[in-house]
Amino acid sequence: MSDSKAKKTLSVIINTLIVILEVIAVYLSYKEMGTGMFVFYTVLSNIFLAFASLLTVIFSFSVKMPSFVRKIKYMATCVVTVTFLVVVFILTPTTTVTPQGKVSIWANLKYLLFYGSMLHMHFVCPVLAIFSCTVLEKPESYDRKAPLYGMVFTLLYAAVLIPLNAIGKVRGPYPFLMVREQSLLASFIWATVVLGFAYLIAIGINLASKRR
């Protein structure tokens, strides 16, 4: 089997696995939170990844993968990478999950990465997506504008959730979205940090794909 065929076969396997794991994770999330799950960036980004992975599997059997499918998979990979890294570097040090109500980084990390649906959405599926996108799937459609495509989902999420937080319809669900509970300056700093973080991730995935 040639290297390209082997990569294509492995891509189909991994993307199929992602779809299966995401379906399980969404089911678990719905059992726990009902329709309230749809306010979470984690859930929405992983549903987006499931859609992108399904498209990738379907079009893998065509003569040539359409550029729009590659672009959608790239965008989905960017947003679940944001999910993974925000969990590790922002939520883990600031979230309280211990019975004593104390912040324990190790306890938080184990809970946020390995408990219930979070094992799939926060860890396994993002890692599989990063590997498949940067190693197995050709970046023919990637260009200098690619990082901007990778930002679209995050910008849309912020554009909806920040106003909803501002008018009191939604609280959070993440500390950096709670604009009514922090100063305007703090909200601006959080927005700059998170969006800048997302942009750097989009650049990193784009470059990692091109350098294969």
Primary descriptors:
212 residues, globular
Structural description of this entry:
The protein has 212 residues and is mainly α. The chain has one domain (3-210). The protein is built from seven helices and no strands. It is globular, with a radius of gyration of 18 Å.
Short description:
This protein is mainly alpha-helical. It has seven helices and no strands.
Spell out the blueprint of helices and strands:
Layout: H1 3-33, H2 41-59, H3 67-94, H4 105-114, H5 117-136, H6 146-166, H7 184-210
Give the beta-strand count. 0
What's the order of the H and E elements?
HHHHHHH
What does the largest sheet look like? Answer: none
Overall tally of domains = 1
